[in-house]
Amino acid sequence: xxxxxxTPRYLIKTRGQQxxxxxxxxxxHRSVSWYQQTPGQGLQFLFEYFSETQRNKGNFPGxxxxxxxxxxxxxxxxxxxxxxxxxxxxxASSLGTDNSNQPQHFGDGTRLSIL
Amino acid sequence: xEDVEQSLFLSVREGDSSVxxxxxxxxxxxxxxxxxxxxxxxxxxxxxxxxxxxxxxDQRLTxxxxxxxxxxxxxxxxxxxxDSAIYFCAESIRTGGFKTIFxxxxxxxxxx
Lengths: 115, 112
Prior knowledge:
- Chain A is mostly beta strands and 115 residues long.
- Helices cover 0% and strands 52% of the residues of chain A.
- In chain B, the strands form two sheets. In chain B, strands 2, 4, 5, 9, 10 and 11 form a six-stranded mixed β-sheet that branches. In chain B, strands 1-3-8-7-6 form a five-stranded antiparallel β-sheet, with no helix packed on it.
């Protein structure tokens, strides 16, 4: 079965622009989480969506937002890009049912570079 | 609090065993995971252990969990150069839904 697919793989933007990243979870997975990975801060949790609702949120400014569609695909948007937003953005999916903490499976990420 | 700590580097010779250690703080952890990340790739789930287990073995991988000390370890037997990567320890905690907290990752160098 296909894994988690993230598009695009690479993206170059300039300060002040906005960007939308896409994630298609494993078929049947309803939970999608987003992470930011940088050399200095490691893996930081952005948010988690389950059944089109944001269920958990990390400590990122409001410029970072996301949504999930009825087919469980998710998008993440960053507005007014800053140099510090340069990072690898990882998406992970899991079954996400409340009574069972299933492991997350990751995509290969979108590497975002801000010039 | 929510924190996962692991050492940053480990160097071993090919054929030796590698042991990567991790400590976590949240006692409400349900599952604990080990992920592997190779350059330019996402995180690959290696193995995981439920918090009421002490040990799990999967081919060359052995996970040991000491719940009293909140200590988790990953042993890789007969380490190969292809095992060179960053290994992340993570705990899954229940917060309404659930949230996964990752350590900073241990970079494993395997010398031929």
